[in-house]
Queue: 4 jobs
Job 1
Amino acid sequence: MVAAVSILSAQQGGALIDSSALNTLLPMHVLLNGRGVIIHVGPTFSKLFAGDAKLVGADILTLVGFDYPRGIAQFSDLKAALSTPLSARLRHHTGLKLKAVAVELSQEQGLLVNFSFGTSLREAVATWRLTGKDFSPADPSEEMLYVIEVQSALLKESRNLNSRLFGQREEAEEQAFTDPLTGLSNRRALERFVTRLMRKRDRKDFAVVLLDLDHFKAVNDTLGHAAGDKVLVDVAEILLAETRANDMVVRTGGDEFVLVIDGFEDSQQILEFAQRIIQKVERPIQWEGKTCYVGASIGISISHSAADKTLDTHLQQADDALYVSKNSGRGTFRLAGDN
């Protein structure tokens, strides 16, 4: 423990950060020596391994796999990704996604890698029975978990109330406009949404973004349809996270999605949005210990406020642009009208 603490000696005043302070500030941290061997772990990270004292002295890459950036197979690869957002997973619990960042210690004595649960917070709390004591006092995770639980309870109560008020009619209408697998809107909802947009007196420009997954069939063929469903659900979550409340995300069937982006400054903003979506969809997706790799190709049609195109026209133009994207090597986007 002394060796681990001495690595963190301050450059001014000669003060030391002792292990208890470090554990309080970063309970999910791991200290590595210059060979990638663990010399100290935070208490919460240790708890993920049932408090196994043998963590100290182990190679970090035997315990944790890094999925993004790709290609982290040895300690030198990890050192090359300093200060870069990392996607990681425990090798003994591959379904749990972790976020991480690595920084170099003073005098090149090793690395400090700090982990967090990110979107896996709820699963981690349930699996390891974590409490507020397992998080840093400055970490908002506990408050976030509370908010999630409150929101879930409120949403459940709201749904129950709606069910009592509208009964089976409300349920039937919801099913008619919702994709059952992803929870996204479906084609019928898309038609209604675009019709309302085009009837607005103060209508703004909007974009119809057609997204088709690359290599999705390979996932289904090699890992099965359950893995394919997991990919579709994860992609749906990415699209929802990247859009706003006034936009619409639709699964029209298979591995095809349509996004309607209502109101934007210029076409460049839409192109940057498309590039960001492609980059996020390309990140690996974990399913039952296996890694799924897909990509995305995109075609875009823009409706200007003065134009009077139908939804079918926009979808055809976006589909033509998507065809060009596919033929350009996939993993790219095209705007309708561009060569």
Note: The mean pLDDT is 86.
Job 2
Amino acid sequence: MKYYLGIDGGGSKTSYMIISEDYTIIGYYKSVSCHYMQTSKDHFQSILQEGILSVCKQAGIQIKELSFSVLGLPGYGESDEDAEYLRNSVRNILAPSPFICVNDVEVGWAASTAIEAGIHLVGGTGSIAFGKDHHGKTARAGGWGDFCGDEGSAYWLGKKAIEIFTKEADGRLTKGALYSIFKEELSLNSDFEIIDFICKKYEMKREKVASLSMLLYKGAEKDIYAQEAFEAAAAEYSLLVKAILNMLYFNQETLIPVTYSGGVFEAKKYLMEPLRDLLTNLDKRLFIQEAKLRPVTGASLYALWHIENRIVTEKLNKLQRIEKHMNIY
């Protein structure tokens, strides 16, 4: 029996899964984030080692029995030096079992399309896109980080929310629902307290600023400026799709699925509807499709694909049923 390990290393948690060659989930485990930029390079290896040993124990196998592993790591591939360090750290844990490390957006694509041609958008704290065409060529766009980019992300929307509040506060924009929501939800006695709140209480932390996108969503029902912010985010995601289209060669007669993951896309009415219209205008072949699998399940399936070179539809359906029954997230 062959065994395949998939890892989805997100910004808030790391998920581990082992499936067998018959697409049965035999191990599933979660730990803290292994993102080396949020923890440290030293902690990266210790976190991964604990998680891999735990999921192997649950599966009743040893590391050396793994046929192949795929690790989706945030930030991977953006620095050659860091990538080499991460690979060596993983090798220290998995050797002699074969593996590959990829950016976590690629795992998102693998999960959402079940290893089929298409484009995947990630809209979490950051934003990035990944695509693979019918010829096997891949491309990515975005993922430049909060200072250089991440347009459309929760962090970007959180900053937009702050901008709208301050403009509504001093009269550059007409006061709307978002102004009142900020005052109430953040317990601001005066408008200028927003500065101390962001700088001292939130310490300008990326994930804290990103959480303000939820207030933007709350205000969008009655605040036109909040609605416009989500429409602007939709435009940024359409640009990511356009960039991927320009780099790849999808068959002219075939529809192209655009999948998505991340909390930003929960703003269905305000984000997804304008995005759907923008994609239709961009290319009639594009259509929005919900993810077929969770990212960690996609990572383990991707590992299986690297050995088997094919996905069996009947077994994929079985994997989807098992995943749903186990409430994988």
Note: The beta strands are 3-9, 13-20, 25-32, 66-73, 99-103, 118-123, 127-132, 138-142, 256-261, 286-288.
Job 3
Amino acid sequence: MKTGNVTGNVYKRSVHRKIEINGIGVKGAEYGEGCAFLTSENVDKAPEKAKQLWITAQSLSVWSGAEGAKLCVYEAVNRAAAAAVGKGEAKVRMVSMQLMLPADCQEQELQKMTVAAQEAAQKLQVTLADVKVHVSGAVIAPVATAEALAEVWTAPAGAALSARAGQQIVMTKWAGLAGTVRLEKTYREALLKRYPAQLLNDVAQLEQHFSILPEAAVAGKSGVGLACAVSEGGVFHALWTLAEQAGTGLEVSLKKIPIRQETVEICNELDVNPYELSGNGSLLFVTDQGEMLAEQLQQQKIPAAVIGFLSADNDRVIVNGEERRFLEPANTDAIYRME
């Protein structure tokens, strides 16, 4: 395709016609507008004196092609939902996407990326409002970015919930969730020499767990004051971010961090640290009632476990038996450090 913004018939047939605008109160971008429009739903029914808050969250994926576009949508929506936890009644309304493509990218690849993003948005019940596409010689592979918008009605009375030392940390699902799926897709042929096909097929099915919207909804009704979506950099990165947001230290038991056996097997084979591997689909909470929240999540068939607590000092500690190690500031994702 030609360098510059994708316009004309290419945009109409490969992007605009692939997007279904079905969200209430959302008008998607028309050709050439480069923006979308949103109106509030049921403003007259808002709680008395409630304040309306808008939260935006961004994501960037360097995973190429349709897989990258799909994960980018999930990550942006997850981050917006996590940021809204504890702030009031919330709903992620829409997501917009930007695609930067190399000049040798074929139009068919653009169509696949748009369709993948649309399918992810449909599963999340969020409107994909716009896809901006630009062809540039500055990139050698497709790069996707996305921005999600969440609407929050803040409580009409009472102090905002916040995190503090002594509260428990709850984690949903498993460490390295999205990264494990990526490793299976990338290294499947090599992994088949070591593991049965059924194990790898089970990994491919983990995509159904990429959304954190169900657990965010539960947490929002359970007095959770702070949440952090696990994404690039894995659960270690997310724990560091959580402590930074809370302004505290933390102590986490490594053995209590949930991890699937498939992740252990694949990471051992490929020499990857699963705790620093993309964990999109997992969510961290802080709450006074960690065990109760974990039980509530499990009743909704969402795996969850208490893995540690916030501490009064600034130390961020991972405990593994007799060993205590300090978390380091956010590291790059383990998948980028593979040789």
Note: Residues 65-84 form the longest helix (20 residues).
Job 4
Amino acid sequence: MEFTITAVNPLEHEKDIKRLFVTHERPEFPSFFDRAYPAGVQAGGGSWVGRDRAGQVVMHVACFPQRFRFGQREVVGGLMMNALVARPYRSFFPAHSLIRRAKGDTKARGDIDFVYTDPNDQAKAVMDMCGFARVGTLRRYTLPLGDRRRLVDGAIRLFHAGARVVTWGWRGAALVGHPAAEVSTAGFEAPSGDSPRLRPYHSGARYTMRMEGYPSASDWWFTLPRNGDGGAPAAGLLVRGPHSSGVMDLQVVYRDPGLPLGGLIRGLVERLRAKGGTRLQVWTVAESRFAAELRRAGFVPREEAASIVATALTATGEAVLRSVHLWEITSLDCDR
């Protein structure tokens, strides 16, 4: 079984890469490529492809830089994504060669501190052999908002009333809702203030990259003005939905350090109920303090989860991976 692996600009090999995914039952990939890869390449990302003797693309993986603030330091993670190997090549050696090459080339760049991803179990086994290690769990959390059945809805209201008693120190934040189409994301790009946590930068391209159709009619920003200041809000929560099931997705939590998450969520609940939401869900690192805040605010961990695996490329990257309890990320920052 012969193959050749090369680092490429994916935009220059668009047709071959899309064909690989569509042939292997990933019909949604071409539209994702169209909205995500131009911005990813512009940010310094790239792909690795494996070709067979006939020159056909039979393997692919990409890695896109993602900027973070970690305490006082600026760090860069490489999000490894869209790994796929054609069926005839789905044995250990081809996949191992692909991931090892991508990791080595990324380290040689010198400007990325760590590489991370949330792979499926099959890919994780390969990545384990390439020096990646499990650093945490990306888990789904849900918060009940309401129900079309009166008795159940009443129980949910009592649940939130009880939560207000238990967390009496958290006042419901006076959030203001805005259709996402009317909101500039520039004010939410850089993490606010000083915090020891790992917090992502989100350029405007990040939303269109990870959220198909953004800004759609179901995308809303809920913001907390900063004491009458006309500048950047003290907090911004991006919510998509409700879907036909009533589920809504919490995509982004931007906030000043020290601003209690519980107060923001309390202020959000009634606004989402008014939109017909029945549950609010969010994905984050289960071992993080952020996840603990979600649980205190009433979110319940669900079974759906994936391992987060990573490898450090610099000393700063090693410090980041030792501090997974400080990660404050959502699925917007992962390959989820």
Note: The first strand starts at residue 4 and ends at 8.
